[in-house]
Amino acid sequence: MKQLKIITTGGTIDKLYFDDASEYQIGTPVIGDLLHSYKVAFRFEVVSLMKKDSLYINDDDRELIKRVIEKSDEKHFLITHGTDSMVDTANYLADIKDKVIVLTGALTPARFQNTDAIFNIGCAIAAVQTLQQGAWVIMNGLVWDPKHVKKNRAENRFQKV
User: Fold this and answer.
1) What is the CATH number of the domain that holds 105?
2) Rounded-to-integer distance, Cα 65 and Cα 89, Å
3) Which stretches within 74-116 are classed as H helix?
């Protein structure tokens, strides 16, 4: 992998605080600082396209993501995305040729001590280097074809369809 292009879209992974009684704010993407702090051995660029809860990501947003990927010289992409519509976005991007695209996110904000964000990002970085072209969902320690996965909101995890 020459360089990883990271596209951030918002979602829980970048939330500043999280509880059912308050408004949330999506802050500055955390992934760049995390990767710098871990002194990763690959080059990367972070592109913040939007700061949205994934419930509000629509096909216009997905088309923007698609255009950025298609126009990019990079071959490897990691997209941080809210979990509620991550599968929809992965399916939208699945027909892009000659690119490996992985989407991941978090069920708890990255700024929290008990977050799954760091684990999911690590899994996504390993996956983007080894998978074949296409779009993939990386959550809960597994690699998913977006045609065969959904989020189980009751159990707050992803599962096979």
Assistant:
1) 3.40.50.1170
2) 9
3) 86-93
AA identity, residue 109: P
Q: What is the pTM of this model?
A: 0.95
The pairs formed by 31-35 with CB atoms below 8 angstroms and a separation of 24 or more are 31/6, 31/78, 31/80, 31/110, 31/121, 32/6, 34/110, 34/118, 34/121, 35/121
Question: What mean pLDDT is reported for the chain?
Answer: 95
Give the pLDDT of residue 69: 99
* Number of compact structural domains in the chain: 1
Cβ count near 109 (within 10 Å): 22
Residues 6+ apart with CB under 8 A from 68: 7, 47, 49
Of 27, 5, 151, 24, nearest in space to 84 by CA: 151
